[in-house]
Amino acid sequence: MANDHTMATLAVSGINDAGRESKVDVIGGVGTKPVALKDVQEGNGPYVADPGPSALWIGWETMDQAARAMSGKAPASTTTYVPQRYLDNQTLAGVDTSNQISVYRDSYVQGLEKQWRLVK
User: Fold this and answer.
1) N or C: which end of the chain has fewer CB within 10 A?
2) Domain at 5-115: CATH code
């Protein structure tokens, strides 16, 4: 498992040079790089999956914690985390990989907007 697209790209290059693309699978671990997701979506080689969290969701989670601190509220549970999504060519079928909302959806936004009364 490569932890970023650069490492995965280097691994894929080496695998292809060795002629082992049908024998070795590469799985990333970031899930936010459009070029990596496009490679996975197209299924054209050993790069078969790129699980990871939504960068947008991480931003909303960070602002939620900051808003809690600024308003004197207790922080969210220490078990609160941004979920990971396993992204492969099946979960990415028909998805615009250049758009994080298309990849990860944005249902969490409505909950946070309601919680912080950000709804217009």
Assistant:
1) C
2) 3.40.50.2300
